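User: Structure tokens for this complex, please. No commentary.
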Amino acid sequence: NANSSVLRQAMGVAQHHDAVSGTAKQHVTNDYAKQLSAGWDACQIVISNALASIVGTKENFIYCTQLNISVCQLTEAAQTFMVIVYNPLARPVGWNIRLPVNGSHYAILSPDGQTVPNEVIPVSSFTRAVRRDRGDAVNELVFQASAPPLGYRTYSISRLPGRGPARSRALKRLHDQPG
Amino acid sequence: TEHLSWAIENQHLRVVFDSRTGLLKEIENLDKNISLPLSQNFFWYNASIGNQENSQASGAYIFRPNTSEPFLIAQGAHLYHVKTGVVQEVYQNFSDWCSQVVRLYDGQPYVELEWTVGPIPIRDGLGKEIISRFETNLQTDGLFYTDSNGREILERRRNYRATWNLSQTEPVAGNYYPVNSRIYIKDKKVQLTVLTDRSQGGSSIFDGSLELMVHRRLLHDDARGVGEPLLEPGDYLNGLVVRGRHLILLDTVESSAEQHRLRAQQEYMAPQLVLAPGGGPPYHPG
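Assistant:
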């Protein structure tokens, strides 16, 4: 039970130029962000409801909002999971997906049962420094997804028994440069 | 020359790095046979705290560097390189608070730069405004282009205002404009476009260059109403770390508009990811 009014109100308040340009005291700026985040959380339920009605079954939909720093409990721990890619544009799009994982080999199936090429790349030291204790993924699963206009596509991902670390295959350190 | 440079490449683009410095050296559009020497690095402007001419400090409302020349964060970058079938990445480490990943995804006609900046050190007592600057040999004649809210592209001319005779007192700040989704420079044939993933400030301070401000940390209030400096709490370890992406497009002037309009729209209205545990039967909208 949710609706988008929480986010609408937060967006209404955030029309103030201080919210747009950051010209407010730090605690006020933090509050703008907090209100928008609460609005986003409420909208996640709205989206889950919409997807449940479209998909026709009630899934346990999960939103990972820190994928940009490789944090997502579900993909880090699960053996199998699904990724639903929704495209809000009125034209088909391709999108590069990066998911934090702890396995080194995965099988990805697209809706028509095709195997999707993917790679497992070590999480960089930069990301580990930024992420700190918010996650412990060792690798990132990288693949390209596509989605139809104003539509969605679901990819099924399953972890394969590990055959050696991804690191040795993907990483090539170059000789150090002068600082 | 091979050991002086090496490159990552996909079907459309080739990105060359200088082996000595670890910096970008050249970008080639393989489809259009365009090759543009290009270097990119991170700099910081020392924020003004006011001077004899003007007591105006740099702050939340006002951008005012105290000199026109920014400082380099590092001469070069330590690199490491990941090459896979889906993506090729080069990790550039400029300092322990500034790094970048240069990515070429398989089949994609753009270069992705994922920059991570912060916490900005302020132990030296200096406020800093961090920029990412691209330098090319394009003859731009003082012109560059920024968008307003992702729609209208405005032509910007350095040290000029269309509606009054400008006497420029701030060579850098006076030429900074809002960049809400893209900035580009071009000569008669070639256009270099940089798409942003958020609204930033940007400019072309000298011909052939363009720069975008990615982070700020300031120690003085600019006395314009906020009543405090743009100074997030925390020390060197706990200040704000910002991560974002710049997408570089290199194409002919004629073809660039279609490229950056579609790509910027897709960045702005990016696909949403929703996850669910378990395998479950694949679904298809059909």
